[in-house]
Amino acid sequence: MFESCLGWIGGTRGNCRAQVENMTSNIEGERLMGRFDFRPQRVHQTASQLFASERINHLPSWHEVIGTIPPAQTLVRTQPLQHQERSRRQRTTKPSKLFQPQRVVYEEDTLRKNFFGDHPWELARPRVVLENDGRDAERKDWSLVTQPDRPIDGESVIQRQIFLLHGNPAKGQPPDPQMTPAKAYDQARKEFYEMRLQQDIERRVAREEAMATGAYFGKTTLQIGMELEDKIFEEWKAWATAEVVREEQKRAAMYTGVDNDTAALPEGEQEVEAALGELDSAIPAKGQEALGGAAIRP
Q: Is there a contact between 170 and 138 (Cβ–Cβ < 8 Å)?
């Protein structure tokens, strides 16, 4: 192809260029289809042909060296394939889970888990769900753990801890830069204990004042529970005593025997014993005396 182009210098140079580009595209196509690429080994020949056809004004500096010492291999360094090592235990994401919504996690969730894990009985207290709509921080001032329009509970500790950590910038209350989650939890928990203790004292004083004026209170839930527990315990005690007596009787019967003379015989064996008794009476008590011979040997 190059030899045919060398003779067309001048007006036919454009046709030669088109043929060279066509040849290059064919070679490129063969390379992409998996064949070998010999273009790097033909660099010297291509440069000589381009200089002879006046496509280039001067030969490259490496032209004479490559002509004397031709390359033994391709000059193009191909990028090796990168093998991705995948663990056998690595599980790929199922297509069915690609479009599932992500789990929504709030900071309050971690604080609730920590508080109610330490105070599980707070969940047993009756609570109205409509009291909290999640926007208490906008309408309430959590600089104090108590609020005038809601009872104190575990959620009060959570909101108080959030206030100590982040403050309330909307109301001009910046957070404390030295406050940590542990310090905020301890401070909110201490205020919560103080309010619980104050409520217990108020209930005790109110009960004593009512009883001093003649009020009568029935049994408390604690007393009712203790009575029910005592009743169940007494029932178990009676059952356990009966079981112990029964086990002792079984154990005594295993190691205690009965005399043969006093043992009662079945009806069939009683008849056999009576017949044997008649035979015993007919047999003499002494054996038969020896006849003949000396009674005493000299």
A: yes
